[in-house]
Amino acid sequence: QKEVEQNSGPLSVPEGAIASLNCTYSDRVSQSFFWYRQYSGKSPELIMSIYSNGDKEDGRFTAQLNKASQYVSLLIRDSQPSDSATYLCAVNFYAGGTSYGKLTFGQGTILTVHP
Amino acid sequence: DADVTQTPRNRITKTGKRIMLECSQTKGHDRMYWYRQDPGLGLRLIYYSFDVKDINKGEISDGYSVSRQAQAKFSLSLESAIPNQTALYFCATSDPTSLSSYNEQFFGPGTRLTVL
Fold first, then answer.
1. Nearest by Cα to B21 from B82, B67, B55
2. Nearest-by-CA chain A residue for B58
């Protein structure tokens, strides 16, 4: 059973700080990694995707991938109260055939940014 | 206009009733998915379809069935609803032909289903 694990939190950071969200996964045969943001009662919204080892930056968001250690992280710089949400990590585990394209989600980390 | 729409947005039904949730998309994506989300359990895949003729079970397909009526439409049915099917249901789509992504999935707004 391929798994994706996240600390459920809640993670609380002050406004303007860096929020660091972590995700580990169970299998090295994986191709793509995604971070989704989900506000309460709303649908998941894709905010970052990463496929290669290293860092990928998009505005205030940076995704970091380390396939050897099997973890992917999301950094949010200059955190704002509007960043308060649940952040879902998703991994595309590839095992051939139709498994490609299926995502396995972690349970999500609740982030609270307080003024 | 929303790219992925779901109807109804909220539904309350009784045990034993048949119910259908519908998903439509204007993104032109071939792949469509149905998930359910429960507190503490995250998103779990119910069924997925890679084209109109290709439908596959996900990790929790028991008690559900699907129909892919067209590239743009994918319906989820609960043949005989039971209370533990109370959850938030999401439809999602992806485009395997996109050169800039590896099957990023895009979600509809969700249907909140309550089975009494």
1. B67
2. A102
